[in-house]
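FAQ

Q: What does a record look like?
A: Structure on top, sequence underneath. For example:
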């Protein structure tokens, strides 16, 4: 993940702006940049980078020589950036996967550009030629994006709410940050002094509808609803979902609970690594109370797939001590989300402190989509279960935090 932050149309003290931008520094430990936008007054942009794909040329804010009127801030991973380059003949200036967004927007506009991206993203584009600021967020909301336009037309944008909380107007909080809804983009007009007009988000894609970027891969799937066709399609989609996430150039690991979802993801990752000639064992990690069922099951799976496995245990006291930090990090008091996040926070802290892994595979979302939770077993009909699966639509408000 990376952190993006931007303020348009204000003349706050430089120290206050810098301090606010640093509120999300944990999102990008590899590099940081804060700058003014020369073409507009009262505009400040900041970027915290976690480097996954590409070298120093992928640093942001990104402005290409081909399109000096466009500036990009993006927290995301674009899996099909090479395919899009081949299809449309884009001339890349860097090895960053996010650069393709600028090319797509310049050629097609914000709606089609967003539709063609296969990946997870939250981005901002400043288009000085058309006096516009544009926001967009992926269909599931995997990457967060908050924004607000005040009554006096100041726009604040950030990957987390905390980056916009310090600003005040007449003694009151300037911003009331809100989510940009997943699968939506927004176009705001901007004046030379940086003031921004309010606009409404517009949906470019919704869950359940075939994404535009998938049309090229659809011929791999079988038509019909026989068991054989369904099994083949699931297998094809899961394998492809894992493989396309292996584009990163940093060390890779996988979270392993011993359940079906994380076990499948870990096993397929090992398989794909072998196909690429990578003989290094995949590192897998499990956390739980001592000798909990998850720890025991994960140990068996790790032995079967031949991973380099680590087990981390924690005590109730350690979990309680992490609560305050977890709530601050997630920016929520939702009890279910916090309950799940506490051990995950402790586990990720261990991985960060003891390994060089920054790419972590997980199995999030499968239980909602494939009805894996126990309460699904008591559904009166298949239709009732399908209705309950709608919670995947709201995943970004809870589990994905």
């Amino acid at each position: 993940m990376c952190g993006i932050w931007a303020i348009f149309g204000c003349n706050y003290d430089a120290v206050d702006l810098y301090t606010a931008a640093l509120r999300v520094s944990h999102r990008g430990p590899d590099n940081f940049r804060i700058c003014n936008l020369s073409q507009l007054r009262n505009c400040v942009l900041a970027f915290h980078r976690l480097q996954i794909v590409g070298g120093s040329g992928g640093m942001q804010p990104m402005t290409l020589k081909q399109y000096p009127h466009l500036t990009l801030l993006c927290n995301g991973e674009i899996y099909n950036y090479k395919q899009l380059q081949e299809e449309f003949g884009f001339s890349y200036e860097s090895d960053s996967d996010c650069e393709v967004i600028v090319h797509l927007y310049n050629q097609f506009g914000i709606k089609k550009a967003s539709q063609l991206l296969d990946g997870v993203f939250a981005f901002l584009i400043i288009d000085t030629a058309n006096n516009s600021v544009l926001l967009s967020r992926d269909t599931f909301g995997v990457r967060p994006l908050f924004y607000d336009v005040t009554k006096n037309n100041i726009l604040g944008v950030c990957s987390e709410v905390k980056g916009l909380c310090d600003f005040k107007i007449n003694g009151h909080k300037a911003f009331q940050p809100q989510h940009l809804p997943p699968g939506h983009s927004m176009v705001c007009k901007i004046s030379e002094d940086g003031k921004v007009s309010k606009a409404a988000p517009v949906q470019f894609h919704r869950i359940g509808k075939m994404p535009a970027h998938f049309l090229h891969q659809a011929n791999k799937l079988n038509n019909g609803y026989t068991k054989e066709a369904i099994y083949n399609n699931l297998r094809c989609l899961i394998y492809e979902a894992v493989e396309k996430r292996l584009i990163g150039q940093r060390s890779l690991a996988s979270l392993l609970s011993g359940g079906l979802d994380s076990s499948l993801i870990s096993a397929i990752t090992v398989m794909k690594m072998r196909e690429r000639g990578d003989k290094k064992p995949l590192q897998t990690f499990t956390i739980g109370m001592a000798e909990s069922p998850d720890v025991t099951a994960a140990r068996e799976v790790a032995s079967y797939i031949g991973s380099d496995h680590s087990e981390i245990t924690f005590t109730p006291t350690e979990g309680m001590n992490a609560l305050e930090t977890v709530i601050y990090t997630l920016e929520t008091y939702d009890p279910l989300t916090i309950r799940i996040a506490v051990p995950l926070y402790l586990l990720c802290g261990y991985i960060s402190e003891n390994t060089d892994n920054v790419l972590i595979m997980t199995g999030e979302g499968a239980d909602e989509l494939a009805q894996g939770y126990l309460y699904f077993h008591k559904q009166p009909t298949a239709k009732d279960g399908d209705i309950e699966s709608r919670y995947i639509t709201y995943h970004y408000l809870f589990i994905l935090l």
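Q: Is there anything notable about this one?
A: The chain has three domains: 3-203, 218-242, 248-363.
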